[in-house]
Amino acid sequence: MPDLPKLPVNTELGSFGFEGYLAYDISELRNGNPWTENNDLAVMPVFANPHEYDGAGAPVSGLSPEELLAEAEKTADLFGLEITSLYTEPTMEEIERIIQKMEAAGASEEEIRQNANIYRATAECNGAKIRVEKDGSIDLSLDQEMAHLAEEIGKLSVYESFRVSFDFRYKTTDGAIYFAGLPLPDGYRFTYANTSYEQALEATQYLLAEYGGFMGIKTPGYDLAADYTFSGDLNRIYTSAFENAGSLTDRILNYNFRRLYFSATDLGGLGSIMYYNADLSQKIGDYPVITAEEARKLLLEKHYITSVPEELPGEEYIARVELIYRTGRLDTVFMPYYRFLVEMPSMEMENGLKTFGAFYVPAVRSEYLENLPVWDGRFN
Predict the structure, then answer these.
(1) I need a surface site. Which of 146, 267, 272, 273 has the fewest CB within 10 A?
(2) pLDDT tens-digit profile of 23-72?
């Protein structure tokens, strides 16, 4: 048995509702995961998450105020933007007032540290706004006259993650404001609602060719995942592309850790481009993994993690299984899990829509885990 450290299993999935997907049939919930159940994977790599976040998802450590401001200036220089205003959030003056107030109230050093935290730097420029988050991620918002700068987003590929958004707004005669986004050429349809799989694929292929050259993708894979709203509209918030060449392990890692995302708008434009390239430099090791069938047995024995507010309804309701990496901010290690989508019969709607809840079983063999989760009837 390989001599590897035991891994902690994160049983917290956040507090923003439960992970469930609406569809008339499980076949509609297709994605681009290259994993298939018939494979010979015996081990999968596990990595330490280099970033630390608190229970609310805020960075515990990261860039200092000086570093945040320097990164904002650096980004402006990369794109030839002139900064008209540069500041932190909260501002230095606001932080000083917070510290003085808390010291006067007798707060501890730790309490002051938690509340006197600068989490972002903002550089306002002519036609653009740059935000640098404490964890180093970059957000570049472009007005219409600066939209051409999106063609140069490869300059940001040195960062672990970035987003370029198109702040184009459309105001109707009744005063309603819509985000139009960057218009696509005639013939492409890319909206939140009721864009078909084929239309989404065509739009994503075009966008990858237009903006994704810096990734050097040779064999693109596409994730065009969608589900339904309660009213029955097909909902596709974003699509993404990844390198789908190499070994199955390579392809799985690319799918989970290195993607280019495109978000739609309700008016059919491109709302934003997002890049995610996780820092996998802190590899812990290659861990033996169980099969999907072994994971299914653990699922039935209630060794699962879920945010669904009901227990597993029965084996006959298991609709799909796939292997994924959980990459949330509360995951201290990036390790593989089997995600089961399970039909929840009590949640079926009158219009025929079914809810498929997500249940997670660690894919790493239990002898390498600090804790094998057991569902105890509560929200995880």
Answers:
(1) 267
(2) 999 999 999 999 999 899 999 999 999 988 776 666 777 898 999 999 99
